[in-house]
Amino acid sequence: MAEKDVDVVVVGAGFAGMYLLHELRKQGFSSRVLEAGDDVGGTWYWNRYPGARCDIATTDYQYTWDPELLDEWQWSEKHAAQPEILRYAQYVAKKHDLYSGIDFEVRVDKAAWDDSAKKWTIHTSTGETITCRHYVMATGCLSVPKDPDIPGTDRFKGNVYVTGRWPHEGVDFTGQRVAVIGTGSSAIQSMPHIASQAKQLVVFQRTPNFSMPAFNGPQPPGRVARLKADRVAYQNEARMSPTGVPMEMATVSALAVSREEAFAMLEKSWRKGELLQIGATFTDVGINRAANEVVCDFMRSKIHEVVKDPETAETLSPRGHAYGTKRPCMDTNYFEVFNMPHVRLVDIRKKPITSITETGIDFDGESIEFDSIVYATGFDAMTGAIVNVDITGKNGLTLKKKWENGPLTYLGLTTVGFPNFYMITGPGSPSVLSNMMVSIEQHVEWIRDALVDMRDKGFETIEPTAAAEEDWRVHCTDCADITLFQDTNSWYMGANVPGKPRVLLPYIGGVGRYRRICTEAMQRGFLGFELQGNGKQQLNPGPVRLMQPDVEMMLDVMATLELPPIEAMSPAEARGFMDASATMRAPGPDVGEIVDGTFPGADGDLEYRVYRPASAGPHPVVVYYHGGGWVLGSHTSDDPLCRDLCKRADVMIISVNYRHAPEARFPAAVDDAWAALQWVAKNASAFGGKPDQIAVAGWSAGGNLAAVVAQMARDNGGPKLKGQLLLTPVTDGSRQSASYIENGEGYVLTKNVMEWFWNHYASAEDRKSVKASPLLAPSLANLPPAMIVTGQFDPLRDEGNAYAHALADAGVPVKRLQARGHIHTSITMVDMLPSGQSVRAHMASGLREFFAGN
Ligand code: NAP
Q1: pLDDT tens-digit series, residues 371-398
Q2: Among 294, 451, 676, 784, which one is most buried in terms of CB atoms within 10 A?
Q3: What are the pLDDT digits (tens) for 802-839?
């Protein structure tokens, strides 16, 4: 007799539910696993259409938790077909006696949280009621076929098939007239099989898809050898990789090589027959439209090579979406199908279907009769299976209601208002953008560890905090914003289901990164969660440190380069290193004109560079001081940033050099910065600038100089400045703030590097001067309006913020922007880190506001 009150109810007996059952038993939890089908396998149970195969190679798409399986189970192919994967699931279920823990042909209709009992009550399709402490949805992401939403679907009297609900006995299309609607993965895989049997096949295509041949065959010996040689290392590499598959990562932009070279590189990736390799050929396929277009061109050229009729080839060639923003497909002879004389392609964007009829399909004035219609029209992805169950959390709130504007989760695992409720590969986790096996195992293990920890400590409930959920939403949006996904109508965005909120459903920050965040949340005492039980409460609001995804990627790359620490170098070596790094960066946008020259510094001539906008002048003028800790850099070292600000704000930027330490210590840089400002004020008109519209700006040590000269201009009778834009400025060398401790290591500008800069620049006594530490000025009143930008993970963050607060206290108009997830250097990395774009756009509008109305 099955238990009516258990520790855990799990919905679904696919690979997620099966592994979870195994782990729950191992840890001594009682459980019920409820499965709608009559066997294990989940997606591989339901999707039995001909040609169904896994697009991820079998070396990577298998369980890792039972190492014996690696030797016991021999995959026959690189990309296993559905029957073999289902047999694998059945084998594992038998081996580990999982069948005895699963109730088949049972659906969960309703689940409600009982806040007084601190338990879930589950109602099933068999009329059973089960109570449980924890409730897990392991329902898969692509398990609810979407309604085909075509008029007349219920009228057709012939055979109707849906790829995601294929008859177990198979279908023989021999001699039939068949229509296939849809050209996603399922259609692309099944089409060659259907075409080989059917007398006539008409394919109704709404959006063409990118697809590459799987080059299926035996498992690739290289991968198998690597896996067998060091299983643990291989699997760890998968777990920490961006997509859950060990893969060579790109090092070059698609725009940094010639088209011929780019195509040659893509050809190499193509030959590998691995789904994720094409997109990983270049660093910027996912984030840069022009780079992505190179890949699109290559993929389209492949279609034209195969499909003989140029018009059909063009109809099959995707033009409207970036590569990867709709799930790319893998096929075996898909495009070849369209060379067969009995196959016809109908572009329903040009020739829309008017109705399905009793005998066939009417479209664009034509009627065609069919024996069978195959709907390969996709799924209500990621959220469909979850909200299809009537789930009610605290205070009567249903999940459907909570998610009516899009799913809200913390870590894609849990959601506020629904205690002890978990989703495996849910929205807000890497899920469908990853190798599912890796993501499933990670979630199962996280849930298992959470349950064990709670039991050990006597907690009964776990629920994320509203703040943590909001942070996660913002972080997911930050990640999505730098990609090209949002411009495409895809099921990733919920766009395939009419009325579904448009939001990027999976987390796109990467599998390895996501794992680190989840692990950190647990290891640091369940950051972002509230735990309760037995009269105890543990509330740990966080924060999980969420860096911008591109910034983190850059730090990862830098870590692999094992660069020497700057503070171990001489100034000359550090300057050489900085110059060499500058040659590898993106150049920044074009501006109207660039002019170099010299001006009289405090102790001899110094260089300047003028960036003039393309618009007609005269322009407001910004005197810009470069970063580099008073030791490094020059008037050209922040070139991309100066170009970007010039263009965005439509202002003239004059970047001026100053003498550097240790050759010229404090106050030499200040004297030069001051001389530069006076000289610009005198000569602004000659440059085509407006002499009464001058502001100062600077980054880091340059921000320090800009702040200092703004005070000097106030105290010395002019020039009257319109504003000061200080980007991650140094404002107080006399002490170290909390951000030095929080962010002192690992974020390029370290505590040690900052100390190295200061030691070269100024003595301990000099640091107390207001010309070195503008925050120490006795009064900050009557200074020009300021915009102060700080980075969240910057040792100097608190100094910048302190200066902003002190200015505001002194009555100076201040705009303060703390750049979320940024480090000291990242905002300046124009065209390399897209997440900095919005920060620089704010900086530019800050500059415009300084000059507005004058
Ligand atoms: P899909 O990718 O969503 O494709 C559905 C197709 O039907 C699209 O071409 C879509 O056009 C079309 N469609 C939908 N509604 C339509 C309508 N009313 N009229 C005309 N056409 C319509 O679905 P899928 O092929 O089943 O694949 C879903 C996902 O499952 C895949 O992306 C993949 O992640 C997974 N999958 C994986 C494998 C594998 O690993 N081997 C195999 C199959 C599926 P639009 O594009 O215009 O919406």
Answers
A1: 999 999 999 999 999 999 999 999 999 9
A2: 676
A3: 999 999 999 999 999 999 999 999 999 998 888 999 99
Which residues form ligand 1's pocket by a CB distance below 6 Å? 53-55, 142, 148-150, 163, 181-187, 189, 206-207, 327, 348, 376-379, 432, 491, 496
Helix axes 259-272, 289-306, angle to 10 degrees: 60
How remote is the CA of residue 262 from the centroid of ligand 1, in Å?
29
214 C-alpha to ligand 1 centroid (Å): 18
Query: Residue of the nearest CA to atom 23 in ligand 1?
Result: 378
Among 703, 573, 567, 571, which Cα is nearest to 627's? 703
Alpha-carbon span 333 to 826, nearest angstrom: 45
From residue 412, give the alpha-carbon distance in Å to each of 301, 507, 585.
38, 8, 35
Residues 725, 798, 804, 672, CA torsion sign: negative
Cα 387 to Cα 107, 108, 406, 620, distances in angstroms? 13, 11, 11, 56
Ligand 1 geometric centre to CA of 481 (Å)? 24
Ligand 1 centroid to Cα of residue 187, in Å, is 7
Residue 845: both structure tokens together: 């509008």
Beta bridge partners of 609: 596, 655
With contact defined as beta carbons under 8 Å apart, do 726 and 703 qualify? yes
**φ, ψ at 133 (rounded to 5°):** -75, -40
Q: What is the pTM of this model?
A: 0.89
Contact (CB, 8 A) for 437 and 425: no
What is the SS3 assignment for 477-528?
Answer: HHHHHCCCHHHCCCHHHCCCCCCCCCCCCCCCCCHHHHHHHHHHHHHCCCCC
Helix%, strand%, coil% for the chain, nearest 5: 35, 20, 45
d(CA 761, CA 758): 5
Length of the chain: 854
Q: Name which residue sits closest to atom 14 of ligand 1, judged by CA.
A: 377
357, β-bridge pairs = none
Task: Report the atom number in ligand 1 closest to the C-alpha of 148.
Answer: 18
The tokens describing 143, both together, are: 């398990």
| Nearest-angstrom CA–CA distance, 382 and 427 | 6
CA dihedral 276, 281, 284, 290 (to 10 degrees): -110
Q: Pick the residue whose CA is nearest to atom 2 on ligand 1.
A: 184
Q: What is the pLDDT of residue 554?
A: 86
Q: Choose among 631, 682, 628, 616: nearest CA to 654.
A: 682
CA atoms within 13 A on the CB side of 276: 21
Confidence of residue 556 (pLDDT cuts 50, 70, 90): confident
The arithmetic mean of pLDDT across residues 504-520, rounded, is 95
Q: Is the dihedral of CA 696, 700, 702, 706 positive or negative?
A: positive
